[in-house]
Amino acid sequence: MNFADMLSFADIQQLTRIAHYYNCECNANSKNDLIQSILSTVSRRDIFEQHINRLSLEDLRFLNSILFDQRNSFSLEELVARVGQTRFEKSEEAASSPRDTIMKFKHLGWLFNGYSHHSRYLFQVPLDLRERFREALSNRFRSELTFTGEPSVYRDEQMLILDDFHQFLRYVYEQDIPLNMEGAMYRKNQQQLFERFAVNEDLVAKGGWRFGYGRRFKEYPNRFSLLYDFAYYQGFIEERDNRLALTQLGQQCITEGTKPQLTQLYRFWLRLYKGAIPNLSSLVHWVDICARNWVSVSSLRTIICPFIKPYYYDDAESILEERILKMMLHLGLLRFGEDEQEGRAVVVTKLGSALIQGIYVSHEDKIELPVDK
What we know:
Blueprint: H1 3-9, H2 12-21, H3 31-42, H4 45-53, H5 57-67, E1 73-75, H6 76-85, H7 90-93, H8 98-107, E2 112-113, E3 122-124, H9 127-143, E4 154-156, H10 160-174, E5 177-178, H11 187-194, H12 222-233, E6 237-240, E7 243-246, H13 248-256, H14 262-273, H15 280-290, E8 295-296, H16 297-304, H17 316-330, E9 334-339, E10 343-348, H18 350-358
Antiparallel strand pairs: 1-3, 2-3, 4-9, 5-7, 6-7, 8-10, 9-10
Helix pairs in contact: 1-3, 2-3, 6-8, 10-13, 15-18
């Protein structure tokens, strides 16, 4: 439902609180007068954006967590958990309780309880307000970005990852591949495989930490780790008797020359990385919105990093650049270039924008991984 519809279902006590929050001058005993006054005030762009600009960073993170969620309702427990995820530091945790934040959004008219018997204990965001939130924040973010011209040379990996996925399956089909004690391919086999790829990667250096971004992330470099886990979880390969082999589905891909769809791999990436980056979907949406034209990575970092919670030894900057932007490049969602004045720059591809806008992965839809630190 839209904002006006939800106001019509609200009781006079809630309407009075909302009117008070917006300093509306009206007859507090008239429901119709309250609704008309609230609608008139909230419809003003300056008033609406004024209240958004007053939000704390934690409130903005909470708002961001529901902006791109396609569901219409949320339980109180889920909203409390989401507010908790916006508190990155201990000092932020003590600022206010999650229920205070939810109550604040209710008083602003940005959250409403459902009105049917089945939804009365759920919370809803007015659909038209979601669009206004996105528009207001988009304008705010884009005003702070540094846009560049198109670089003379740029890197574009569109569809190469699917070609390399097929090369991986073919390598497993043609070779007898032993696995080591950890269940991973030996480095010699990895090197042989990477020489077949259109996008080569260095082998993972021994020592150091690698966990949280895939089942085999510890043993394999970032891009290949994604390909390997996708092949494993989707049933193209199997680890059997200390050997890596194709399943019937994997053999079918080789004999028939078929490939998975990029949409499948992109959705899998979102699910795989959600454990470490819970708000990954919304972050990718903001990259799409901010980088429709060539934009400097440094200014994009300034906008997006405050919304990224560090993950163990991965700080916000490394998560943005290594786990998000570079993986979006590998998936063909972004192009990377170099601007003479601003340094590294990125732009979303048409294919990338279509995928990002068309694919939704729920907040809970993630792949659980063991944390091996």
